[in-house]
Structure formats: structure tokens, C-alpha cells
Amino acid sequence: MDYAHPLRFGAHVVARTPQEAAERARLAEELGLDLVTVSGEETDTWTLLSWVAGRTGRIGLAPHLLDAAEWAPAVLGRAAAGLDLLAGGRLELGLGDGAGRWEASGVRPLPPEQAATALGEAIGIIRGVWGSDTRLPLRAEGEHYRIAGAERGPAPAHNIPVWTGGTRPDPAIAAGADGWLTTSGGLAADQAVIDEAAVRAGRDPREIRRLVTVAPRAAAPEWTGELVAMALEHGAGTFLVEDADEAALRRFAQEVVPAVRQAVAAARAARGVTEAAVPSSLVRAHRHPGIDYEAVPAHLTTIEPGDAGYARVRSTYMRGGSPGLVLRPGTPAEVADALAFARGQQVPLAVRSGGHGISGRSTNHGGIVIDVSRLNAIEVLDKETRRVRIGPGARWSDVAGALAPHGWALSSGDYGGVGVGGLATAGGVGWLVREHGLTLDRLRAVDLVLADGSLVRADDTRNAELFWAVRGAGGNFGIVTSFEFEVDEVGEVGFAQFVMDASDTAGFLRRWGAAIEAAPRDVSGQLIIGRPRPGQPVIAQVMLVVDADDAETVLDRLRPIAAVAPLLDHTIQILPYSAIMHVPPGGHDGQGDPVARSALADHLTADLAAAATRLIMSGETYFFQIRTVGGAVSDVPADATAYAGRSANFQLVAFGPSRARLDAIWDRMRPHFSGIYLNFETDLRPERLDDAFPGETLRRLRELKRRYDPANVFRDNFNITP
Amino acid sequence: MPDYGHDLLFGSFITPANAAPERVLDLAQVSEDADLDLVTFQDHPYQPAFLDTWTLLSYVAARTERIRLSGNVINLPLRPPAVLARAAASLDLLSGGRFELGLGAGGFWDAIEAMGGRRLSPGQGVDALSEAIDVIRGIWDAGNKERFRLDGTYYQVDGAKRGPAPAHDVGIWLGAYKPRMLRLIGAKADGWLPSLPYFTSVDQFAEGNAIIDAAAAEAGRPPAAVRRLANISGRFGQGGDQLLSGPPEQWAEQLAALTLEYGVSGYILMNDDPAVLELFGQEVAPATRELVAAERSRRR
Fold it and tell me: Where is the FAD-binding PCMH-type domain (chain A) (predicted)?
């Protein structure tokens, strides 16, 4: 019986002294082995394993039959996920049933039948801690363990294989064990036992990887023959040389492993057997209908609902999702492959860069997400012209950090956690906008994958019409795989945070708007007003950046704005642009669907200020924000890019709890507006497209859409129907 | 007293967030590079946003060369003492004697119980901690050839093999505020590790010291057998009346006063800003040591 598992070779290192074990594990890595498993005698196995993880960089790691009760299963589950995150997804979990517990803890082991049951319960709890298909707390009422509503997480970096051993496999295999460890002597007999247990648990026997420990042998040829037979006749897929000294380990890695690989590959080829790992039925059980998972190109990185990392990718910043498949291409060619696969599936398609989109639906329910976050390189192409190439998956925090050492910055959004792709194809309004323009105004070229899978470059001379469309409606035309920007020289900047009394709300808005319009272009910023609290004055948070590094200029610029209303509190710092944009890394876990309305306005007129005040006082917005635009943005003719709202000095957004009530108020404010800023607009009514793209722009976009995406593959954000 | 005459230790207290493990590792490296003596991590195994502290300590130990490490403090209810003892000794052996065992009785009982742990009252928690210290010291007593038995109320050991012995005398430091815990420290532990922000006044050091010293005397131990440490928070600023809010030289004066008047000899800064840790290690620590050494030689 050959289960056709790709072969893996490792070393089981037994710690007589912990230092010796750690050295042996490093040698196993140096020799190119796939896996090292460790067990302590006196030494604590988990401590030794964590230490070895810190001293190695590539090799797979597993405790060799650790007793799951030692640290309590829920704690062990969390520890295993943490070690997998620390070690970059290298962990496997070899668990034992506690027969060795007496030596370790002085607590008598359970009788074998009960020990097997306890191990099954422990595996269920460990997998439950990792579980990412539900947000519900973990509960387990077993004979041996009781978990009373523990929080789940973190999800490990990859699906940690769990394997165990012994002669009572049913509870562990039913609970999700992925592998079974046996000895070379017991292999033949054990395989049938495992196969039957797998079938009883409703699993495919090929899902269960067979691991076998083998004793070192003096003669490599005999050793090789033995292993080849075990692989081809008894289904062994992973070989662990047992407690080998240095010479034996070298002989194994350098002579036996290549010979076994070659012989097994030849025999499999002759028999027409294709190597493949069958995914766990516990993963497959979470698959969604409508997606042909078996047809996903094997070289693509995927995350599906049963996978460990699913919790980290299912949702976006403000929107909950439950996609059936997330594809994570690492190259432009893989983007094309992912797109070709997705187009063949009759389910929704979403494209995601940073996942911060409020208008962009970069997740879905039951569909496919192409997540380009791995395309995140930031590369200086030419110092002279400050030409920089940036992948769509980079975040603005990373961009600012990478450009700072050159004394450069790129006008971006106001929050560093946002991804490059979604912002640079739609606008980009942030702390440098009045001085340096929108992010897309700094764009000089893009490479993108079109709906038909072709990879094209667009700039002012090549595919110029496409380049025009990408700057403002990019999400409709393809998946950008890299952007080339001309960035600006920006040193340290003044960053001011004011808390202002906005009791005279309309007057405050009007005066603030006038002060901004009167300010030189080196001033950009925003104000935020929350839901008013009964009996308290309306408070505005004002944040401003002055692109100057001398205190005098900064204060000169700020004074007129600070004078528009009583200043309750303020801080002013001079710091690098990258410090303003800095956010720690972290994923998204949004839930529900955000309700936000967006607009551009040329001036904060008395009428607009009065209407905005009515909105604020209605309590229907918990976050009302006005950001500055104008300046350099308005230097660009309205027809130069698909982003047409060039006359606006301000961009407004309101988030509210109720779509119907917010819409009712916002719709009435429409006469005061001169357009929409796409990325904050969640309204799906078709007339928003006309607000976003004025007549001639929309006509041109439709024509281009018919040319570049006639089947309307890209439809998730302000869909321009062909 | 109370300057107990210990050499001074300066350490960091880094949030073990799992959202960006490389950031945690970087801060540990910053601690070592800033010549801090100690890097510590809180231990809340029920907190899903944190890396497992034991795993992290072992991993960081493997990636550093010089700095000492401790949990701050290890959650006893979710870490069985016999396993913990062997793990602590293993880590001390692997790291060349760089591990110290900060230990706590546990406090968030709902969360502990939810994770499969046993709920205890605060008083029971102290008794369990006392037994746990006996278990830990019994396992470490590798030279003792008798199998280890202990029939406690909370922990039973039925003939475990002893060992390994740690590479050095691992300090057992307890996070404690109340008299029963303080008495336990005096009787059995090697260090007292409270968090200064939980104190209403620094005089609580004096009150705690008095209880610890009396309990130590009763157990026939000198007061200096117990090191006094403190988790501290603060910021580097213009200064003023507030503790630890001025420039590094003012921090040094204030910490030296805590050492000379209250006997505190370990300062662990709760801060995740690399620049702050660098100032603490490079400027505050040497200046404090200098002030304390000068005063100690004057008093001699």
C-alpha cells in the first residue's frame, strides 16, 4: 500500500543533555532534513522545542509525543499556535497519551483505554483553540477535560499537523489527528489499524500521514532498501531516524535520503502513482458549494474556511466576510492564474490589497477573494527622479517607513494601515494632499493583469487610455501588480492635534473651511466630530500637518486655524511623516457592513455648514469627518484622470448606525456637493455612479470598460457596467 | 536596613502580542543591546492576543546571548508546578543560567476556569502557591536520590524522578501585595516583584518589607535573602513632582532613592517603545548604579 505522500525525512533527537539535543537539531537543519522532532528525558520537551525553534530557521519542528496534559490542552493549543507564529509556520504537533506522565509529574498515568479517550479530547480542544470558522467561545465537556467558554485564537501561521501514536487510534483520528507515528517493526500491522480507524471516523485513510521511526544502520544500501520497502509497500511517508549520533545522521541525510527519494520516485513513476497529500476531511468539511477546490492550480497559495489562517483573512477592516476561498498570489503571473481560476467559478470575486476598503467590497460570502498582500515590495528605481516601485499589497505605513531614510514621502491616505492598491487606484487624500496632490497624481506607470489574464503596462504613452482610467476607477479594469510613483522630498513635518469647542457648529465649520482655504498649500488636515453628548458642548478633533520642520513656520500656519474656535487642548510635534503613518502590523476582523456616505464639496458654505450641523445634531452620525483637498489636486484638469472631482477643497464622510436614516439626511445635502470620494461611499444606488464620474468621464469609462472588461469581471467597487 | 545591599538589576517588560511576533522579538533584542539585565513578559494564558509566555521565553532565550529572562509573572494555576519546575530548569540549562522564575498565584479566575484550570479563592491561591514552591524545589533537588513525594492539598507528587537541577540558583520571585503572600515570600521565596502603579504610595514598600523581613526572620532567613524588585512605568519628559516623569538623570535620582530608602534593587520598565528602553538601559541604569554605589560607600 502506497499512500503517495511526498516523502519527508527527519531526525528524532533525544535530549540526554539539552545542549546536545539543540546542537543535533541544528545539524539536522544543516544537513537539509525536513523535520526534527525532540523529546526530553529530564529536559522539558516544549521548552527544548521552543529553544530549537529559536536556533533554527528552516526545518520543521515537532515535539516527539508530548503529553497534551502537561500544560493543559487549551494552554498547549495556544502555545502551539504561538510557536508556529514565532517560527514562521514550521510546527507540527506530535502528541502522546500521557504514558510518560508519571516520570514527568509524578501523577500516575491513566489506563490505556482512558488515556486514548483523553488524548482525543485534548486534540479536539487544541484544534478548537485554533478554530477560525467560528467566533463563539470554546466549550468542551469531556470525561477528562472541561473547557468552559475559553476565547479562541490565535490562529497558527499554518495548519499545524497533529500526529500521535499507539494502538488505540479511534479517538485521536475522530478528533482530527493528521498523522500516525509507528516503528519500523510495527509498521505493517499498524497500517491496517489506522486505515480502519480512519474509515470508521468517515475519513479517507490517505489523509493520515504515516510516520515511522527507523534505527540507524551501519550500511547505507541496506538502510535504503529497508526504507524504500516501507514507503512503497506499507505507506510510510515520513521517516525519522531515531536518536542518531552525528556520523549516523550524516550518513542518513547524505546517502540514504537521496537514494530513497530516487528509488521511490522511479517506482512511483513506473506504477503511474502521482505524489499528493490529501487534505484533511476536517478542512474539506468547511468547503463552500460552487467552488471546484480540486481545480485550484497547485502552485497557488490558498486559504479556505477550514484552514488555520482563515480568521485572519475572512473579514476586512469594517466588513465581515465568509469567502469560500482566498487566493494569495505571490507574483503577477500567479495573479493571472488566480484570476483565470476565479473566472471559471460561478461565485462572486473580490480583489483585496490591504483590506481597509469601506466602499470596496474586498471580501464576500461564499465567493473567491484574490488577496495581493504578498505583492508588497517597495523598491527605489531611480534616485535622481525619485522613481519608486511599490506593490499593491504594501501598506502606507511600510511605504512611509521605506521612503523616510531617503528624505522622501509619497502623498497617501491619512492612516498607515491602509493598503496601497485600493487607495492608489481611487484617490489618496491625506496629510500632504494640498501640497503634493492625490496619491494617484504621483503615479507614473502601472503594471496590471486585465480581465482576460494579459499582463500589461500602462503609462502616459503605452495604453494611455487605460492609465487614465486606472487613476480614479482602477478597480474596474484589472488587478494592479505594481505601481511606479514619483515621490517627493519631505523632511520632518509639524503635526498638530487640536481639541476645539464646536458648540457654534455651523460657524465653526464655516470659519474652519475659510481658514483652510486661506492657508498655504503646505497645510493639510482634517476635522472629526462625533455624536454629540447630551448636556455637553460639541467637540471637534482637528488634526493638521504642516510640511515644515521649523517651529516658527509651523506655528505661523496653525495660528489662524487655531483661532476659529475656543481651543480646549492641543499638542504640536515636529516629527517624521513616517511617524504619523506608523501603525503596528495586525489583521482585520470587521463584522457586519459599514454605513458611510461620502462627498466632495468646493467650499464649506453657510448652507452646507448649516446642513452638516443638522446632520451632526440629529445623532445619526457617530463619525463625521471633513478632510482637506484642493491645492495641488485642483491644478490637475478634471479630464486628465478618471478622478474628476478637481474643484473640491473638501471631502466629507459620515458614518452612521442606520443606512435609511443617514441616507435620508445625506440625500438632502446633495445640492451642496460637487462629487463623491469613492473610497468612503457605501451607497449602492446606481445614481452614485453619476455623482462619482461626471458625464464625459463616465462615458469614456464605459467605453474603456467595454474594451478591457466586457464580461464585467471587476465589479466590486463603483461598478461601471459595460 | 532597608538597603539590602543587592546589586541592581534593570529590565524590560514587553507586551507579548501575537499580532506581530517579530516586534516582540525586536524589543527583546533592543533590551539586550541596551545593556538591560533582564527581559520579562507577562503571562496570561487565557488571553488569545498574547503569545504563550513560556514558549516566548524559551524562543527569546535561544535568540539572545547575555540578557536574563523571567515571566512577570508566570500564571501558576494554568502551569502545573512539576512541569513548570522541569521546564524552568531546562530553560536555565539551555540558556547558561539566565532564567529567573517570576511566579504568581493567579487572579482572573473566570478566565482560568474557562481554560480548564481550577478556581481557587485568593487564600487558597496563596496556599497552592506555597505548595507549588515546595514541588518546584523538590524537583530541582536533583542530588537527592529519593523519589519525590508530596501529598499536598492542591498538588500531589507520587514518586516523581527529580531533576534536572537548574544551571544556577533560579530565583523564585513572587508578584504580591497582601500580607499572606508577603509572609510566604519571607518564608520561602527569593524575591518580591510588585508593580509600582498598583501602589497608592511608595511607603507600601516599607510596609511590605517589614512583613517580609519578619517572616524571613521567623524562618531563620536573613532579610537580604529576598530581593525586592518593582515593575515601574513612566516617561521621559521635562520633570516635575511626579515620579519617573523627568529626564534620565532625574529618574536615576528617584530610583537610587528607592534603592537606598526602600531596598528595591530591581527595576523593570513596562514600556514597548525601543527609544525609551534604550534610554533606560544606556542612561538611567548606569547613573542609578553610580549614585547607589557612591552612597553605599559613604555609608560604609
Answer: 318-490
Cα separation of A520 and B38, whole Å? 50
Percentage of chain A surpassing pLDDT 70?
98
Taking Cα atoms as reference points, which of B43, B101, B113 lies closest to residue B75?
B43
In chain A, which residues have their Cβ closer than 8 Å to the Cβ of B161?
42, 103
- Three-state DSSP string of A350-382: EEECCCCCCCCCCCCECCEEEECCCCCCEEEEE
What mean pLDDT comes out for the span A659-684?
97
Res. A97 pLDDT band, cuts 50 70 90? confident
Q: DSSP H helical segments within A404-537, as ranges?
A: 420-424, 433-436, 464-473, 505-518
Min Cα distance A49 → chain B (Å) is 9
In this predicted complex, what is the ipTM?
0.98
Cβ <8 Å between B52 and A79: yes
Domains along chain A with CATH numbers: 8-271 (3.20.20.30), 492-694 (3.40.462.20)
Q: Region A479-485: what's the mean pLDDT?
A: 98
Residue range B282-293: mean pLDDT, rounded:
98
Q: How confident is the model at residue A473 (pLDDT cuts 50, 70, 90)?
A: very high
pLDDT at A597 over 90: yes
Q: Are B156 and A42 within 8 A, CB to CB?
A: no
State the angle between helix axes of B81-94 and A45-55 in degrees (0 to 180), rounded to the nearest 10.
30
Q: Give the distance from residue A63's alpha carbon to the nearest chain B alpha carbon, in angstroms.
A: 13
pLDDT on residue A617: 97
What is the distance between the alpha carbons of residues A643 and A609, in angstroms, rounded to a whole number? 25
Tell me how far apart the terminal alpha carbons of chain A are, to the nearest angstrom.
Answer: 56
Q: How far is CA A109 from CA A38, A63, A77, A167, in A?
A: 21, 19, 21, 16
pLDDT score recorded for residue B248: 97
Write down the pLDDT at residue A108. Answer: 66
Mean pLDDT of A180-188: 91
Q: What domains sit in chain B, N to C, each tagged with a CATH number?
A: 9-299 (3.20.20.30)
Q: Do A74 and B115 touch (CB under 8 A)?
A: yes
For A60, A203, A280, A338, the CA distances from A306, given in Å and listed in that order, are 22, 15, 9, 20
Model confidence band, residue A16 (pLDDT cutoffs 50, 70, 90): confident
Name every chain B residue with its beta carbon within 8 A of the beta carbon of A52: 62
Q: Which of residues 583-622 of A touch B (CB under 8 A)?
A: 584-587
- Average pLDDT of every residue of chain A: 95
Predicted pLDDT of residue B220:
97
**What is the pLDDT confidence band of residue A102, given thresholds at 50, 70 and 90?**
low
Chain A CB contacts of B58 under 8 Å are 46-51, 54
- How many CB atoms within 10 Å of residue A539? 17
Cα(A350)–Cα(A716) distance, integer angstroms: 6
> What does the alpha-carbon distance between residue A446 and residue A324 come to, in Å, rounded to a whole number?
30
Give B 92-121 residues with CB within 8 A of chain A: 93-94, 111, 113-117
Average pLDDT of chain B is 96
Angstrom distances, CA of residue B263 to CA of B196, B260, B280: 14, 6, 20
